[in-house]
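User: For my dataset I need records formatted as: sequence, then structure tokens, nothing else. Please produce one.
Assistant:
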Amino acid sequence: MSRNKIFHFLTVGFFLLLSGCATVTVDDGKMEKPLEKATGLTTESVKQALEKNELSLWDVYALASERTAALATLAENIEQADAQSLQAIGAVLPHVSLAGSRSYQSTNYIGSNASNTIGSGIPGTSLYLTGTQTIFTGLNEVAGITGAQSTKDFNEYSLRDRAGQLLLDIAGSFYTVLELEETLESKQTSRELTEKILDQLRKWQTVGRSRPSEVLSAAAQLARLSADILGTQNELLKAREQLTTLSRVKPSQALKSGETYQVPSAPLSQLESIVDSLPSVKTASANVGIADAYLLQAHGQHLPSLSVQGNYFLEKDGGFPSPEWNVQLLASLPLFQGGQIVAQERIMASRKRQAEMALARAKRSARGDIRESYKSLVNCIAETEAYQKALVAAEDDYQAVVKDYRLSLTTNLEVMRTLNTLEDTKVNYIKAKYQALYNQIWLGVATGELPKTQETK
């Protein structure tokens, strides 16, 4: 049977579903949308950082967010989750194909009635549309759609959480570099002063105004400072390399800190109440949703499957005649699968319980992180202010002793003692100051306030 006439008047359309791919490229100077959403940074932020001679913490963070593959990898997971969501939706939509076949057969037949065979010796050719509509296959469709959305949420919150951790890593390395640079500068100043005192003591020793023990004491102090400077230089080199690894800024890049610390304005109890909205907790919650979707899919295996399949012939020549179209309803009901379905349900139920326990653990961890960072910031600010007062007192004491020394009212040993006290106090103040700045970033990340995004601005 030929249906060329119908075939000639039928237009077969091919529909291509085109979707924009949110590809994230590393180190191209651009901040793609997924990264911009997670970090609150834009391409303009990266551009401004590249034009600066001295980089602040946020400049380094902008470059690190754009240059490192850690965030870009998670952003690609979001792209994959979007595609999985489309797959899940596509599973419940009709599937239509254009199919064709041509058969060949021998012209020689065996049997007494071979000559009466309908269509004998004529090759068969067919062209037809075939379509399948899945009504349901257990609960696979529902589980696929809900699971795909949970997977997308999981990846988005994972990216947001990793962006915060990257900021915390950058802050730790950044402030360590600045702390070591200030410490090195302070120790070098102390060494210069100690060298002057040692030179003076040696001159006085030649005329009998200084004892050999005073010269040896100053020389020992100078040697200790020189050793401390070498140690600090090595630590600074390591800190610079670590910052370069995290952000790919040059090891010689000039850095500056324009941040100031302040006591948290919100009480601790208020900050602890926002645990459920934190990225780390939402990531764990989305994981529970994924496990729940798999469990739903396992339950659905007890249910029947139902689908409709149909064919519409556009052309049919040769062979046996066939109807113009046909439709069939396909159904199946699982009766016995050797216990596999029950076993699968037990596995998925166990995985869901694991996900729920991980969610509870994430909440405890987040709450503990908020408490620890909050208390560390408050205590460190108090410590910094105390060292600041001690530094002022040590500087006044040193200046007074130097004045008395010039008037021959005190000894070189007293000058060395006050210089050592001043140096130790200054180093402690520098450490406390930058630790307070780091703790402030830590609290911001722990409470989800940092990095600032459209949700937190």
